[in-house]
Amino acid sequence: MTAYGTTNDSVNFGIIADASNIIDGTNPPYLLSDFYATYPAYTPRSTTGDAIATVVLNQGGTGYVTNDILTVSDGTSGAIRVDTVNVAGVILTFSLLAGGANYETDTNVVVSGGSGNGATFDITVGTESTSLVDPLIIQMYIDVAMSVVKEARYHSYWKPCIGFFVAHFVTLYLQSLAGSNASAAQVIAAAQSRGLQASKSVGDVSVSYDYSSISNDLDGWAQWKLTVYGQQYASIAKLLGRGGMMVW
Q1: For a pLDDT cut of 90, what percent of the chain falls above it?
Q2: Burial level of 193, CB count in 10 A (0-12/13-18/19+)?
Q3: What is the pLDDT of residue 180?
């Protein structure tokens, strides 16, 4: 090991490690899609929403005037504005003002309001994408994993270990989540470390946790034991040797 530096009132000191077990290097790409392929539970899901997404004029009706506001039936608060009409007040063009809620894709849906009558529309509801964890959060942990888990060390284990690393932290992130309206106590409770359940009682449902299996190993792999993903990552990392994997 080679040391270098200068000594004065403000000490600057550096260490160059010549040890052969320090392995660095670039990694091949690892994308969100790679993580989702291995852990589909975290994949964003597309679900049918209940707000109006698109509207097609079915019947133009009569007696309407420009800027009439029409309320779409069969749901809540869907609204269409009349933009242009002909001399008989038949709707020619229109705009969807509000998608509302509680709608289903349907044809010949009637509207109310405005100066005329008889207009109907074909409506289509949109789709919504929901995720257990925001993809930006998952990408953040992928970036961390890419800086720590090197293919040069893990070889054929590299891709599974990247996945274990990310899944471990994403799972801990989920455990620590509290609602946007949570109290300070609820936020603190969600962020508390969880030990292994040691006992429980039936009356009034009391549960206690044993932290000894974690605290006894704080100098080793303690936090990796908190999820099955971390346990798998730690097992492989210990098998291959982790020297030089993390430099502080």
Answers
A1: 46
A2: middle
A3: 61
Residue 204 burial by Cβ neighbours in a 10 Å radius (0-12, 13-18, 19+): exposed
The top-level CATH class assigned to 46-130 is: mainly beta
- For 155-210, write each residue's pLDDT tens digit: 999 999 999 999 999 998 888 876 666 666 666 665 665 555 555 556 666 666 55
Q: Are the CB atoms for 122 and 103 separated by under 8 Å?
A: no
Domain coordinates of the chain in residue numbers? 28-44+133-240, 46-130
Look up residue 216 and give its amino acid: N
- pLDDT band, residue 38 (cuts 50/70/90): very high
CA distances from 232 to 28, 88, 168, 229 (A): 22, 73, 10, 5
Each residue's pLDDT tens digit, 86-144: 999 999 999 999 998 899 999 999 999 999 999 999 999 987 777 888 899 999 999 99
